[in-house]
């Protein structure tokens, strides 16, 4: 596993390099590996430029995410093909993106659960998904189905507004019997999205997801939930509040989804409210940047060296140098927060916003997984006197997440094509220090 981020560090990180004690490469000992698991509705993203008349023709509501029938999907796709309107076709799915990005950043294994077409032909949707997914993502646990995977059309009008048309295919047919409980129980984290709960009668995805979540809860594996769209959350906000309180450890969202679940428009206030239910919160807030919140035991708190920031909570970033912990592991829990503005002020030209949040989450997951990896291989390190959830501080993770999401914003694909550059030409080393 690669070290998470680009920075100086004093603790030995057990990658395949020289042992700091002997200055020799120790080939006799085998490193103990770990992995994360994600469940997703496996689909392909198709991006095209259209106008309002096109949306009206196919009865699509501008700016909304909506499910479309097989018949409409075929007509829509053919129309886009005939008029040469398609800009890009990528492997997609919010958790699929996250697993791919995690494996690119960590250069290590992740496992994706879902369905995959039994018969795959060169050039079809299933082929595009597999060929555009990192070889480090383990697809061996996908459940074969006799039919198509999902297709998500991202239709962009002249103003830049995005309208989503989703055809489910058989993506929601993941059966509970396909959930390997031992696989979940030994993972470093289980990652799901709210989309898994948007199913039709006869679908089994929700049952499968709930089985996996309960298995993770029983095994003490952190459950990570990403709130996929505000429209889904605002339909049943009380259900989602109760669900995250009972089953989720880490909640990730944008400011619109935060408003839907908490009724607070201020991202920091919303993140603080979510700490009533979960152990850690990630909230992206567009041009405002990224907020993170969590818990630390009073004895392990570390004060920031940055200027204290005003907000809904005065001096809220005072202890952002602390490493977050599960609430249950804190004897005297203290809430900690951090904020970071967009990397380099944000890109001059945003090529694509799809997947930026997935990249940020992947960076955080890399840090959490690195902590497990380090503990398994260097368990007696002073790093693990504190029963921390992550390898790095809240502040450091926000930098890493911020940097990873920037890479997606400046490209067309919603997935990282490579890891972060080994050398930052545009930044001083100080960005990654501490």
Short description:
Helices cover 29% and strands 18% of the residues. It is α/β, with parallel strands linked by helices.
List keywords for this structure.
single chain; 434 residues; alpha/beta; UDP-N-acetylmuramoyl-L-alanine:D-glutamate ligase; nine-stranded mixed β-sheet; five-stranded mixed β-sheet; 12 helices; 16 strands; 29% helix; 18% strand; globular
Give the CA-based shape. globular
The CATH class turns out to be Alpha Beta
Uncertain runs: none
Sequence of secondary-structure elements: EEHEHEHEEHEEEEHEHEHHEHHEEEHH
Termini separation comes to: 21 Å
Q: Looking across the biggest beta sheet, what order are the strands in? A: 7-5-1-11-12-13-14-15-16
CATH topology (fold) name: UDP-N-acetylmuramoyl-L-alanine:D-glutamate ligase
Helix content: 25-40%
Total number of β-strand segments?
16
Q: Structural class of the secondary structure composition?
A: alpha/beta
Helix count, DSSP H or I runs of 4 or more residues? 12
What's the architecture, going by CATH? 3-Layer(aba) Sandwich
- Give the DSSP E fraction (strand runs of 2 or more residues): 15-25%
The oligomeric state is single chain
Main sheet, how many strands, which sense, barrel?
A: 9 strands, mixed
What is the CA-based Rg, rounded? Answer: 21 Å
Binding site for ATP: 284-289, 357, 402
EC number: 2.7.1.73
Domain Carbohydrate kinase PfkB: 133-296
Organism: Thalassotalea algicola
């Amino acid at each position: 596993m690669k070290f998470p981020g680009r920075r100086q560090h004093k603790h030995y990180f057990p990658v395949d390099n020289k042992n700091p004690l002997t200055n020799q490469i120790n080939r006799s000992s085998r490193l103990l590996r770990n992995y994360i698991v994600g469940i997703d509705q496996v689909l392909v993203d198709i991006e095209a430029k259209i106008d309002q008349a096109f949306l009206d023709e196919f009865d699509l509501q501008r700016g909304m995410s909506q499910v479309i029938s097989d018949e409409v999907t075929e007509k829509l796709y053919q129309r886009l093909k005939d008029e040469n309107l398609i800009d890009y076709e990528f492997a997609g799915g919010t958790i699929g993106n996250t697993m791919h990005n995690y494996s690119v950043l960590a250069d290590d294994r992740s496992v994706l659960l879902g369905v995959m077409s039994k018969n795959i032909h060169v050039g079809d949707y299933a082929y595009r998904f597999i060929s555009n997914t990192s070889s480090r993502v383990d697809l061996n646990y996908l459940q074969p189905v006799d039919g198509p995977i999902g297709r998500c059309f991202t239709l962009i009008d002249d103003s830049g507004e995005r309208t989503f048309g989703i055809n489910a295919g058989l993506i929601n047919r993941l059966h509970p019997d396909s959930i390997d409980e031992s696989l979940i129980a030994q993972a470093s984290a289980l990652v799901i999205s709210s989309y898994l709960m948007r199913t039709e009668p006869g679908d089994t995805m929700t049952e499968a997801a709930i089985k996996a979540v309960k298995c993770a809860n029983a095994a003490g594996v952190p459950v990570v939930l990403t709130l996929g769209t505000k429209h889904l959350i605002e339909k049943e906000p009380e259900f989602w509040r109760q669900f995250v309180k009972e089953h989720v450890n880490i909640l990730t969202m944008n400011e619109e989804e935060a408003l839907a679940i908490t009724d607070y428009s201020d991202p920091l206030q919303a993140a603080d409210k979510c700490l009533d239910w979960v152990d850690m919160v990630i909230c992206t807030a567009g041009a405002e940047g990224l907020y993170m919140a969590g818990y630390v035991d009073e004895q392990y708190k570390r004060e920031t060296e940055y200027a204290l920031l005003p907000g809904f909570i005065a001096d809220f970033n005072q202890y952002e140098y602390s490493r977050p912990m599960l609430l249950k592991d804190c004897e005297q829990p203290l809430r900690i927060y951090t904020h970071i503005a967009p990397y380099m002020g944000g890109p001059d030209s945003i090529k694509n916003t799809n997947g930026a949040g997935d990249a940020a989450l992947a960076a955080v997951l890399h840090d959490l997984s690195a902590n497990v990896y380090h503990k398994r291989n260097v368990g007696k390190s002073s790093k693990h006197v504190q029963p921390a959830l992550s390898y790095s501080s809240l502040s450091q993770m926000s930098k890493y997440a911020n940097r990873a999401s920037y890479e997606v914003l400046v490209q067309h694909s919603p997935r990282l094509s490579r890891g972060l550059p080994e050398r930052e030409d545009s930044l001083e080393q100080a960005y990654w220090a501490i």
